[in-house]
Design brief:
heterotrimer; A mainly alpha (315); B mainly alpha (277); C alpha/beta (437); B: 277 residues; mainly alpha; MetI-like fold; 73% helix; 0% strand; C: 437 residues; alpha/beta; D-Maltodextrin-Binding Protein, domain 2; eight-stranded mixed beta sheet; four-stranded mixed beta sheet; 18 helices; 14 strands; 15% strand
């Protein structure tokens, strides 16, 4: 098969003869064939409407009340939302949320992509390595909490290691210092999720047939050129997916923060998601928590839409 | 070009180094799981066990009754597999029509799913519980499967749609021209090409369902169909937790999911190479 | 071209519909008998009564509640369907089940308002059944506010939990230390121990409730010994945390302790393991955990002897202790009449001193009926006189209006121990949380 039946949109665009005469991307044109039937989507749509939208609206309604999670309540309109903007600790949480989210997005994608590229072909033990690198992803939050809390402990391995190499001055209670705790959390988050991003990129890379790369090599492209012109465009869907998912996950991270610091010390590592949980469940402020949750949703939505627009397939 | 060169060897070594560093925390997992009860509190967490024992594993596997770990393993496996099948089936169908649609409703529905990923579902917990109870879905594995399918559907559709977008229409057009119906096109042409996507969806959603604690607790806690994470939490005490037993369970729970991952990697993500001609 | 073979269509449609329908039908059928709310056995005909009972479990070994249920069934033949829930999210799960109408008949709750499974908010939401006079009689004098609403009792307390601090006598002997008589002696001991590489207290600095418990233990002698009704005064607005000399003393004591090295190195980041490992290994001599936890540690670590001590008062002040009913049982308002009656009978059985005593013995707590003539577990020896003479107050946070107050106090102290914030701002934040609602 020649490179023209390309999986590669770049190649497709460049070859005017390959049946791409009429711009198949024009949105208003009737498609050539019917791709499936619209009602195929029905079960999925129905389930999502029920489980997500109906149930969540039920709960979100309380954002406009002072419900504690039990018993009766009063309608308070937008009071809860006003409180959000008056509360200084929430500003700190917002800062933490954004910091973690973007750090997480960048680190996981860079590392995940590098690992996927390294493990895509040729290496003899690549399947074993893929499993090993995926293991952190599978670890239950309970174990993550215990192990990493121990690692960061004042008497734990990190400080012990620093002591051995004579860097005692660098020993710290890692999770108890406001400045460091956030980075510690980010480390654990990246450690636990990079394997997953790797899997997404591996799937994307799998759709690039080796023949294309060989053809590119034969045409004289160097490693970097091959990557940039052939591999990268093919994994654009993966970049879009991994980017979106990591952004969303980063913005609403909850498990790792709760597991490591519970938002401490003194609230220094609270994120919007942990505050939502605490207000809604632990502190019996369901109404306020719901308002907070809706605000967080709006923030994530804005970023997601921006991200979708940025990675939209423009070819 | 894909020969095994010295550079490749170097690459392999570097990745191995990365893997080993990344696996260091697991040393503590294993070492604690091998500790007998009396060493649990009396030694520090980094000290290896003086008298390593497999007793934790055998004890935990021998539990019976409501909290039986074996039973929980089976329940978890059942529920996870059922959820994956449902998600792959309905998710791929929905994502396919959405990704290929050129009309406005296609984009709108896609955003419906995207937004659903972001929605704060913890707010909907109580309405969902009441609704599920009315439908009789509480406390049974089938109900749980339906629930998980609903909860993770947006993610499945999003993943599938993303991959579908990158699939050029040539293959479907060729098959349609040959006289295949859309259903056949989908089943015989598109899905096999989408094997990496299916693998990814299966791995990601399977993982989430397998490790899910909170929803399983609320809907299945205390019933005869408890899943593994819930049964594991019974070992967490108010002050003293039986970490050695907990980690034994953790290790036991990692084995099936990693096996599934390996299977999905080989069969789906890499296995389809050169298949459609 | 688009030959829509109807066969394919139909096949696909069936493929979709069958599993969905099947799932719904199967689950509907299988939950017909499973739909709880206490219909297990039911009070029909009234021969074999039974009811369901839910409680949080401590560890996977048999819970004291389970042993209790077995005893009751042995004695009376009434079957009890036991439902255990993990400790960690007990409150949330219980609330969901109660609101969903799916909760068991007899439930373990917490007194007052402070926690998610606290009885008063549940009662206010009409989710609990008022109990009879037999249960009301069990409520200790002075603690009615924790269990009653509008003159109706909604929960029956099961035991008394002294809260001071836990002290490892064996480790203390090894370190050549005796329990300090007052705060000054304590600080001296702290410095001596720190010099030997040990610590007086093992603190779980990363777990706010541990810091909150420390504050409350100290407040026994600094606030509540002098002003037993301080909480009521605060509710009436007569005093505030920020202006209270007693509470300022509490925070100053914590600060002094921190500076004197009373807490272990890296306490600010420690978790519960710091406590259990430190106590068991003897590198720390004491910890702020409730009385029942001492039993839990001793059950898990042979050869360790723990005692409950009251936190040292300031030099020259009188000793005082915290002890309150921390666990109680309530009846689900939505249960069937037969189940409710069966559950109430169980509560009346439990109220009898000989039965209650057996339960508290297993748990390692103190009988709710008081200490007089009762067999007290050996770990309570040091505080026996305080308990007999009634020199104790209930845990302060049980009477506070909402969980945010305790949370603000605990978080503020956590910041202080880690070097952020000062006493005044912590107390002000606590006040704000109190008034905030």
């Amino acid at each position: 098969m020649t490179t023209q039946i390309g999986t590669d949109p770049v190649v497709r665009e460049g070859s005017p003869a390959a049946g791409g005469g009429h711009p198949a991307r024009s949105r208003r044109r009737r498609p050539l064939i019917s791709y499936g039937y619209w009602w195929w989507a029905l079960p999925a749509v129905l389930m999502v409407l029920l489980v997500h939208y109906a149930a969540t609206s039920g709960g979100a309604f309380y954002a406009f009340t002072d419900w504690t999670g039990l018993g009766s309540f009063h309608f308070v309109g937008l009071d809860n939302f006003r409180r959000i903007f008056d509360d200084p600790t929430l500003l700190g949480s917002l800062k933490n949320t954004l910091l973690i989210a973007f750090g997480f997005l960048i680190l996981t994608n860079v590392l995940g992509l590098l690992l996927a590229l390294a493990l895509n072909r040729t290496l003899k033990t690549r399947y074993l390595l893929r499993v090993l690198l995926f293991m952190p992803v599978v670890l239950s939050p309970l174990a993550v909490s215990y192990i990493w809390k121990f690692i960061f402990d004042y008497n734990g391995p990190i400080n012990q290691l620093l002591g051995w190499v004579g860097l005692e001055a660098w020993q710290r209670p890692w999770l108890a210092e406001p400045g460091l705790a956030l980075w510690a959390i980010l480390t654990v988050m990246v450690w636990q999720t990079t394997g997953l991003v790797m899997v997404i990129y591996l799937a994307g890379l799998a759709t690039v047939p080796p023949e294309i790369e060989e053809a590119g090599a034969l045409d004289g492209a160097g490693t970097w050129g091959r990557f940039w012109h052939i591999t990268a465009p093919s994994i654009r869907p993966s970049i879009a997916i991994a980017g979106a998912l990591m952004l969303i996950q980063g913005l609403r991270v909850f498990d790792q923060v709760m597991a490591l610091t519970n938002g401490g010390p003194g609230g220094a590592t609270e994120t919007l998601a942990t505050q939502v949980y605490k207000e809604t469940f632990a502190l019996s402020n369901f109404g306020f928590g719901a308002a907070l949750a809706l605000t967080l949703t709006a923030i994530i939505l804005i970023f997601s839409v921006l991200q979708q627009m940025a990675t939209r397939d423009r070819s | 070009m894909f020969r095994y060169t010295k550079a490749t060897l170097l690459r392999e070594a570097v990745v191995w180094l990365a893997a080993l560093v990344s696996l260091l925390p697991f040393y503590f997992l294993v070492s604690t799981a091998l500790k007998p009860d009396d060493e649990l509190l009396s030694t520090t967490s980094s000290a290896p066990p003086h008298a390593p024992t497999l007793a934790n594993f055998t004890d935990v596997l021998a539990t019976t009754g409501q909290n039986s770990i074996l039973l929980a393993l089976i329940n978890s496996a059942l529920i996870t597999l059922g959820s994956i099948v449902g998600l792959v089936l309905f998710g791929s169908l929905a994502a396919y029509v959405l990704a290929r649609s050129t009309r406005r409703w296609g984009t709108v529905t896609f955003y419906l799913f995207l937004v659903a990923i972001i929605l704060p579902t913890q707010l909907g917990l109580i309405p969902l519980y009441i609704g599920a109870r009315k439908l009789g879905l509480v406390g049974t594995p089938y109900g749980m499967i339906v629930l998980y399918i609903g909860t993770l559907m947006p993610l499945a559709v999003f993943l599938y749609a993303g991959f579908f977008r990158g699939l050029p229409r040539d293959y479907e057009e060729a098959a349609a021209i040959d006289g295949a119906s859309p259903g056949r096109v989908f089943a015989r042409v598109v899905l096999p090409l989408m094997a990496p996507a299916t693998g990814t969806v299966a791995i990601l959603t399977g993982l989430i369902v397998w490790n899910d604690f909170f929803t399983a607790l609320i809907f299945l806690g205390g019933s005869d169909y408890q899943t593994l994470p819930v049964s594991m939490y019974y070992y967490v005490g108010s002050l003293v937790s039986a970490w050695n037993k907990i980690f034994a369970i953790v290790i036991l729970s990692m084995i099936p999911i990693l096996a599934f991952y390996l299977f999905a990697q080989k069969k789906f993500i890499q296995g389809f190479a050169g298949g459609i001609k | 071209m688009t030959k829509q073979s109807p066969g394919r269509l139909r096949r696909l449609g069936v493929l979709v519909a069958v599993p969905v329908l099947g799932a719904l039908t199967l689950s509907a059928c299988s939950t017909a008998g499973n739909d709880s709310g206490g219909n297990s056995g039911g009070g029909s005909g009234g021969e074999t009564k039974s009811f369901s009972f839910v409680f949080p479990t401590a560890t996977n070994s048999e819970s004291p509640y389970e042993t209790l249920a077995k005893k009751y069934t042995q004695e009376t033949g009434v079957k009890i369907e036991v439902r255990k829930l993990p400790n960690d999210s007990y409150g949330t799960t219980l609330r969901t089940q109660l609101q969903g109408g799916n909760a068991p008949d007899l439930i373990v709750v917490a007194p007052g308002r402070g926690q998610e499974h606290a009885v008063l908010p549940l009662a206010e939401a009409n989710l609990l059944e008022p109990l009879d006079d037999g249960s009301t009689a069990v409520v200790p004098k002075g603690s009615e506010g924790l269990f009653t609403l509008d003159d109706k009792t909604y929960a029956q307390p099961t035991d008394l939990v002294p809260v001071g601090m836990v002290w490892n006598t064996g480790a203390a002997d090894k370190a050549g230390a005796t329990f300090p008589a007052d705060a000054t002696g304590m600080l001296d001991l702290c410095r001596k121990l720190a010099g030997d590489g040990k610590s007086f207290i093992a603190l779980a600095g990363s777990v706010p409730p541990n810091l909150g418990l420390m504050a409350m233990s100290i407040s026994a002698t600094r606030v509540y010994e002098q002003t037993p009704d301080w909480n009521k005064q605060r509710a009436d607005g007569k005093v505030t945390f920020a202006q209270s000399q007693g509470w300022q003393d509490v925070l100053k004591t914590i600060d002094d302790m921190n500076k004197a090295g009373c807490f272990q190195k890296g306490a600010a980041g420690g978790g519960f393991d710091a406590i259990t490992q430190g106590i068991v290994r003897g590198t720390s001599l004491g910890a702020f955990v409730p009385g029942g936890a001492a039993q839990e540690i001793m059950n898990n670590a042979k050869g360790v002897t723990l005692q409950i001590q009251a936190f040292p008062a300031a030099a020259g002040a009188k000793p005082y202790l915290l002890a309150s009913p921390n666990y109680a049982m309530s009846i689900n308002a939505k249960a069937d009449a037969g189940q409710k009656a069966a559950a109430q009978e169980f509560l009346n059985w439990l109220a009898k001193p000989e039965n209650a005593a057996q339960f508290t013995k297993i748990e390692g707590q103190v009988p709710i009926a008081g200490v007089e003539g009762a067999e007290l577990a050996p770990q309570y020896e040091p505080v026996k006189s305080l308990l007999t003479s009634g020199d104790y107050a209930p845990l302060p946070n049980l009477e506070w209006p909402n969980p945010a107050v305790y949370d603000a106090l605990a978080k503020g102290i956590q910041g202080m121990v880690a070097g952020r914030g000062d006493a005044q701002s912590v107390l002000a934040a606590t006040d704000k949380a109190w008034d905030g609602k």
